[in-house]
Amino acid sequence: MKFYTIVKSFTICLIILFFISCGNKKENSIDLSGKWSFQVDSLDQGITEQWYQSQFKETITLPGSMNTNGKGDELSVKTKWTGNIWDNDSVWYKAAKMAKYRQKGNIKLPFWLTPNKKYTGAAWYQKKVTIPSDWKAKKIDLHLERVHWESTVWVDAKKIGMQNSLATAHDYSLGAALTAGEHTITIRVDNRVKDIDVGKDAHSISDNTQSNWNGIIGDIKLIAKPKIAIGNVKLYPNVTDKKVKVVIQIKNLTKENQTAKLTLTAIEKSVEGFSLNTLKEEITISENNEVVLHYDMGDSPKLWDEFNPNVYQMQITLDSKSGTDRKNIDFGMREFKANGKVFTINGRQTFLRGTLESAIFPLTGYPPTDVASWKSIYKVIKNHGLNHVRFHSWSPPEAAFIAADEEGIYLQAEASAWGTVGDDKPIDGWLYKEGEDIINAYGNHPSFVLMTHGNEPHGKNSKEYLRDYVNHFKDLDNRRLYTSGANWPYIDNLDYFNGGAPRIQAWNQNLKSIINAQPPQTLFDWSKHINKTPMPYVSHEIGQWCVYPNFEEMSKYTGVLKPKNFEIFQESLAENGMADLAKQFLMASGKLQTLCYKADIEAALRTKDMAGFQLLDLHDFPGQGTALVGVLDAFWGEKGYVSPEEFKAFSGQTVALARFPKRTFKNTDTLKVAIEVAHFGEKTLKNVTPKWSLTNIDNTVFAEGSLVEKDIEIGNGIQLGEISLSLLKVDKAQKLTLSVNVNEFKNTWDLWVYPNKIPAITNKNNVKVVNKLDASTVNYLQKGGNVLFNITKGDIAADKGGDIGIGFSSIFWNTSWTNGQKPHTLGILCDPRNPALADFPTEYHSNWQWWDAMTNSNAIILDDLPKMTPIVRVVDDWFKNRRLGLVFEAKVGKGKIIISGIDLHTNLESRLEAKQLLYSLKKYMTTSEFNPEVTLEINQIKSLLK
To answer: Measured between alpha carbons, how far is 756 from 751 in angstroms, rounded to an integer?
Structure first.
């Protein structure tokens, strides 16, 4: 019993010692989140009146913004915005139809999301803190993780300084200003664009995206450190030597030479957390030192890439007479290089399949600072087959880099600008500091592989400025690759070129683009651009394909930014009697949008030695006129018309590709299609036998086969063989789908086959086909005849649809911010079961067999006609929401008519699709099913014409 009594007493003592030690534990930080005193300084008088010596009456919660706290001004037509208002956007300010949205209490903006409140200017934040006595010998810093934008700090009545980084923390050394006891910290935050002009549309500040908010987010804290402490740390991994060069700044505030001990241990950042060896080094410190060490990672360090996102943490301890300081730095063993015209990761070729992130966060109006939020975004991106994110004219908080490290995403960060550079304005020097701050803050993250100053620079001296800018950063830090600006200019000292030429629709091409001016085919690629560029070429902002608004997502906007633009579009649709068609417009235009993205992405993947693409965008862009360019909404949520798996089939790591000379065939043709593959997986695919099949719409197999077995190396332009197949078995018009499987990776393409000899139509003479509505035709119609009136393109009156730019593709970006760039419409909507289309196989939406029709037609505005359901409807721009018909029917007098905005008579023998559509309509008109419900007067029809 005595033994157990001793053990019991010993255990009690241990417990007592534990609690004593906990009670005596010295905290090295004070969390300042929570309630702060607050005051708006709209007249900018606070500095002159020394508000840092005042007490503020209002309160605010930080982290947060004025808007998340319900503070700011009510909106009005006088509200000043940070963002350019283009001509078509300015309609809101003057158009009579927008007058109701300019009224107090009903402010609704069509060109970006509408904030609850708006404030641009200075605001003051204040908090009392108590400094513990055991911090007396410490160096005390104020850490503000992200401030928008300029901050000035006072402690009591002493000004500490001003900082204005948009991308990195504002860290203030408070020095001797904080003695033990109570102090008042006052922070003035100013979100105006002043002498540092990054550009009103830069996504770092613009109301187009995150909003130009005023506040402080992320970690807000005081940090106590020894007077000899670890400063900035840079880790340079060497994959070949299996070592890490560690460059450590030592900050010494003692003003004495000191000896200290550095201890470094790398630990796997995983559940197991295996430790590598420990390196110890005795050092001598003067005032401020830089110590360079070489850390051995052992015989087989784990490398970092998209497939194996192995992250290490370098734990650094500095022991000196002043105390112990520690830092933990995430890093990865990776080498991201430009090898000729391609990128390599650890010596293996990779291809960047990217999308943009433009600071789009509607709930808060500012970016998240937690890792979980960013991981959820990256998981969605990877589920859609992508491996890369470009941060357009901004850089995210550190959480985004941490999450990308752990998920295996390659990042391009930018130094916050979209404007004029090189004119000796303050922005020129600021961008150097901003870039250096970004590298110092985030440069150790293995995911951070690309960098530029920002987007699309302007200025007559911009090229010379950016040449020097790139050289500076290449010399400063070689852990990533650098380019001048996103999209331009091309300079010979770049590590890679981010250019806008390789895409199927460019800005201001209107209907002269590849997708709208050339009949459907997939033989083209971007070799002409790649071959003349002696460095990796990443295409800039490809896509920009619009979709009709998804009104069902409006309920998601529960935060500070509201979809008042969606409300305007929804109300307009209802006013034009089509509220019930909203979901159908979304789904039909979404299918066309997906088709356009597939065409853009596959063209890039077909291009040998291309280095990558950056989409604009996988998700919607809420501003710049409302750019609904995403297959996902602004919250990265699906809209219902394409699944991640379907998108990944043409955008993932391994994609089969087909070179089609055309998409529509006669049954007397032989289908000849060259098959290739773009494979950017982790390893070579061994012993692959590619398989193909041609299936009918009911998934029955029309034909199938295999290509020659081979090993598929990493790269693209890898030829798999050719499919050659007679189509004689096709005896009626039908759609076929070609599928090619490379192991588990499957891609598909639709094609159409029409019979060379079209069966005769019984009673075809009962249908009069005309392209002019002359007197004899009108007389024939009114007396009971059947007329197919196919109108020559250009014959529709301007105000009845003649001025509508109709093409095959979806709208590019939007019609508002492009000043009416064509096309103006979002494809077709029809009922594929309509008997008028029985011999023209179609889905409810645009597909490639509609290219000829859309290219040779005018949309017809039906607003002044009785409400009807057209045989083929055109989905209009959401700003106009006109009732548009492409093909519709009516009774006229005793007769019946089909009016086609599609030209079904010009060069018909060379237009296979038009010939087939004409046949389908004529055949329908000879049947009893041809029985229009709506009656029109002949003058109503004539009013449509010039």
So the answer is: 16
Q: From residue 776, how far is each of 534, 768, 899, 918 by CA, in Å?
A: 66, 11, 17, 22
Query: Sign of the C-alpha dihedral, residues 661, 662, 663, 666?
Result: negative
Please determine, for residue 909, whether its predicted confidence score (pLDDT) is greater than 80.
yes
Apex 697 CA angle, 695 and 701, nearest 5: 25
Average pLDDT over residues 638-667: 98
Q: 25-34, 351-360, 872-881 — which is least confidently predicted?
A: 25-34
- Three-class SS state of 843: coil
Whether the CA torsion 514, 515, 516, 517 is positive or negative: it is: positive
Identify residue 528 by its one-letter amino acid code.
K
Q: Contact at 8 Å (CB) between 364 and 68?
A: yes
Burial class (CB within 10 angstroms; exposed 0-12, middle 13-18, buried 19+) of 273: exposed
Per the structure block, which two tokens stand in for 890?
A: 């009516």
Side-chain-side CA neighbours of 396 within 13 Å: the count stands at 30
What 3-state DSSP class applies to 547? Answer: coil
Specify the DSSP class assigned to residue 56.
Answer: -
> How far, in Å, CA of 139 to CA of 176, rounded?
8
Q: Are 330 and 405 within 8 A, CB to CB?
A: yes
Instruction: Provide the β-strand partners of residue 812.
Output: 545
Residue 816 gets which letter from DSSP? T
CA trace torsion 141, 143, 148, 149 (10° rounding): 20
Which pLDDT score, from 0 to 100, does residue 798 have? 97
Cα-Cα-Cα-Cα torsion 194, 198, 203, 206, nearest 10 degrees, comes to 30
Compute the residue count for the chain: 946
Residue 722: which residues within 8 A CB-CB, separation 6 or more? 672, 673, 674, 675
Return the structure tokens found at 152. 């000035």
Dmax over CA atoms of the chain, in Å, equals 124
Concatenated DSSP letters of 906-928: TTGGG-HHHHHHHHHHHHHHTST
Is residue 24 scored above 80 in pLDDT? Answer: no
Do residues 765 and 821 touch, judged by C-beta distance below 8 A? no
In sequence order, what DSSP letters do the residues of 400-455 get, joined into one string?
HHHHHHHHT-EEEEEEEE-SB-SSSSHHHHHHHHHHHHHHHHHTT-TTEEEEEEEB
Q: Which residue from 753, 676, 669 is spatially nearest to 722, judged by alpha carbons?
A: 676
Phi, psi of 891 (to 5 degrees): -95, 140
| Cα(414)–Cα(197) distance, integer angstroms | 15
Q: Buried (b) or exposed (e) across 726-737, using 16+ Cβ within 10 A? A: ebeebeebbbbe
**Could you count the other beta carbons within 10 Å of the beta carbon of residue 98?**
15
Q: What is each CA distance from 119 to 82, 179, 190, 215, in whole angstroms?
A: 11, 36, 10, 11
DSSP, res 82:
S
Residue 577 is classified by DSSP as T
Residues 607/347, Cβ–Cβ less than 8 Å = no
Asked whether the whole model's pTM tops 0.85, one would answer yes
Structure tokens at 375: 């991981």
For residue 706, the SS3 value is strand
CA proximity to 700, closest of 720, 729, 671, 677: 729
Q: Tell me which residue has tokens 């513990």.
A: 132
Residue type, 233: V
CA distance 151 to 155: 13
The reported pLDDT for the residue numbered 175 is 79
Cβ neighbours of residue 17 closer than 8 Å, sequence gap 6 or more: none
Tokens, residue 468: 């020097």
Contact 506, 513 (CB under 8 A): yes
Q: Is 743 left (phi over 0), alpha (psi -120 to 50) or beta?
A: left
Average pLDDT over residues 147-168: 97
HSE-CB of 289 using CA atoms within 13 angstroms: 22
SS3 94: helix
DSSP 26-44: PP-EEE--EEEEEEEETTS
